[in-house]
């Protein structure tokens, strides 16, 4: 079926192209408009990008790297998008050969063209057939997106229409099924969204610097009935809702330097595997307010999520077939020890979170020569305080009932240019995490308190020649009883990177599990990389040991096993 | 209202009606499953001390196109000949193992010998595999009592015999008995478990009742055979499904600690399709595990039709 569709698409392409070629008397090259006197022929444009990540694996029993019998694995893709005026069409070829890289879902094994679409615009209408990505509001009720570094892709395959009757009003309707590796999930998704931007509708608001937007969404999922035994009594079969509906309303308001954005969403009873088949309705609330002026930016955010895991298959867990997205209200750290040792994974079935973020630049009269940039960030997430019921309703909870603390992060980052040649960046951070609860290893607490410090110095010793050095430390004393754990206790890390702009870079990094209570596991994870950039192409080659851990993007995470080997990465676009 | 606005409002309402499909379920949230256990009463008595024995669960994550997997199956056969019924085995065919468990095309032109067209894969095997990450580590691989040995729950078959020996040397904590009642008129199975705690056990425990089909004859890849595709290979201990819910099973004593001498029993019923499964080769495999660590403390198996 997939193949037939792709073939049709190609035929449609070539027919389109040849039909246009017939009308012109001269043969033209791509991307060129040529006039033959009476008609202008537009051949349209093709753009795309290409990416390949490959690794050659060695066995390394010390770090417990899984044995890869085939030694070599790769993930690769090529996107092609053709546009011609109001028409566009695209496809993506993907290959995971002979299997996806370690840590990616092995159900991706294979190759093919999962992604293909055609779309056109006419008046205020934009119609798309095939695969597409979409987000309603903040994504609380619908977000179809791709995050390649996680191996996450939940595009919708079906039809979508967007209609803009007048500037400031956008209506979207869609219907389709979601990607499930090389197939589709069992649930049918129907969605409708309306956004009204009053600032566009009433120019007087813009004159008064008032920004006002409202929006609303409905999303429904249909899945066939099946016999699922009750988790409370296996001699009982669940009465399943086949249609599960969600809706949300949102408001965006801005006045001068102040702006805010709030969204409230509701989901009817949706017994599914992630909530252990309970019938309690779900709700989600998200709020963000910010104030920005020269030299100062303040953002305050809060959310309350209750039983809001929404998928197009009630029996699915993990990453596949997620229909919605719960925003992460924690700083997305970039320094390795802060980002990937104890990251936070969003708890879609219950959490209360808040974040404050302040950016401050010292004013000119205070800074001698170069201003100091300071970022202060605090975030905290708690579970809901729940009272379990003895039936399948599940639990009851208060709106403001705070349960167990899941995560806390308080950090300060200072950035200072010392001279034309030297720039330093310092970070200090305190972190708390209930590792078992957050990373899904069970409900026995495994509480971690850690302090992290980072110093990052950049020295441009000659024009085009820069050396950058990072020193990082993570200190924790909480995990010492887990003697079997190969990534445990305190860490030290050093990185040195040399860049010869604009083409070359070399870097060398050592992550050392210096505080592992098992002496044998005080392992150095050393990696080296060489990279070459040219235009929009980047090639990186490396060798090293990768520690076992968890990678999170936007609060969505995947487990990564340890590995040892050569890596090659090529990214390019045209 | 202008014509254009009217049309827009009409479309809007139409779309909302299409989209807002909602099935509200009021209590009760469930209904009775077809019952075979209604007509059956099972009684248990504790086994005599000399009849009790520690039993260990060995799970072999395997695939019909995995050419080294017969080595793991042979290891289990050796273990069972050494320790007898003290070794309870399951063969898991997981879709996560990719090509190892995938099927060949079933059309007779592309695949005249009809190799590898039988689908051994089950949801329960996938769930277990996904949780413990077994096939991510490559096949063949397995687990002994789902216990972590030197930091790894997934252990290679060459190490099974030492892990089995060390597990069998630990004291028995619970004793499990199973009674099966098969009703051929309704194709339904009523299965009882009975757990006797042999000491005070402070953790929270679950019991799993799985359905296993033994000795299924289908194609198997074997790199040590010539040719390497074996048509009439006997697949042992194939995990087919569950009797009591998901792969996680159900709580014993509502998740509360077990007291020495405490007896816990429960009956479950499922329907079996004899066209799919050979009922004469079906077994119920039961095991008790610690919910916090997933470690299995005792296993048992019983044939469906004795």
Topology:
The complex is a heterodimer of chains A (about 575) and B (about 300).
Chain A: H1 2-23, E1 33-35, E2 40-42, E3 45-57, E4 72-84, E5 87-97, E6 110-122, E7 125-132, E8 134-135, E9 143-144, E10 146-147, E11 152-153, E12 156-163, E13 169-180, E14 183-184, E15 188-197, H2 198-201, H3 203-207, E16 210-222, E17 236-238, E18 243-255, E19 258-267, E20 282-293, E21 296-306, H4 336-340, E22 350-361, E23 372-388, E24 395-417, E25 422-434, H5 435-438, E26 447-462, E27 465-476, E28 491-500, E29 504-512, E30 524-534, E31 537-546, E32 549-553, E33 556-560, E34 563-573
Antiparallel strand pairs in A: 1-2, 3-4, 3-34, 4-5, 5-6, 6-7, 7-12, 8-9, 10-11, 12-13, 13-14, 13-15, 15-16, 16-18, 18-19, 19-20, 20-21, 21-22, 22-23, 23-24, 24-25, 25-26, 26-27, 27-28, 28-29, 29-30, 30-31, 31-34, 32-33
Chain B: H1 3-19, E1 30-32, E2 56-62, H2 69-83, E3 87-93, H3 123-132, E4 141-144, H4 160-168, E5 174-183, E6 188-197, E7 205-213, E8 216-221, E9 229-235, E10 238-242, E11 250-251, E12 263-271, E13 282-290, E14 296-303
Parallel strand pairs in B: 2-3
Antiparallel strand pairs in B: 2-4, 5-6, 6-12, 7-10, 7-11, 7-13, 8-9, 13-14
